[in-house]
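Saturday, quiet lab. Running sequence design on the structure tokens for the scaffold JK sent over.
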């Protein structure tokens, strides 16, 4: 393996720092997007509404069954 000069090493370190900064920025954006629960609810409003309705019906049926006992 050939020896690199201090200038080449510094240049390589700086390039790695810049790549790391870009990667971290992308990761932050992805984490923000994935943890945005309001956005998920907005994009899946129909599914959420259906799920809530089903849970409501299930709870109502359960309460009626308990009341009849």
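Result came back. Writing it out in full:
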């Amino acid at each position: 393996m050939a020896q690199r000069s201090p200038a080449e090493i510094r240049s390589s370190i700086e390039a790695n720092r810049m790549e790391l900064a870009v990667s971290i920025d992308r990761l932050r954006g992805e984490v923000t997007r994935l943890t945005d629960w309001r956005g998920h609810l907005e994009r899946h409003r129909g599914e959420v509404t259906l799920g809530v309705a089903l849970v409501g019906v299930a709870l109502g049926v359960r309460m009626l069954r308990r009341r009849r006992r």
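Notes for JK: The mean pLDDT is 95. The CA atoms of residues 37 and 43 lie 10 Å apart. Ask whether to fix the surface positions before the next round.
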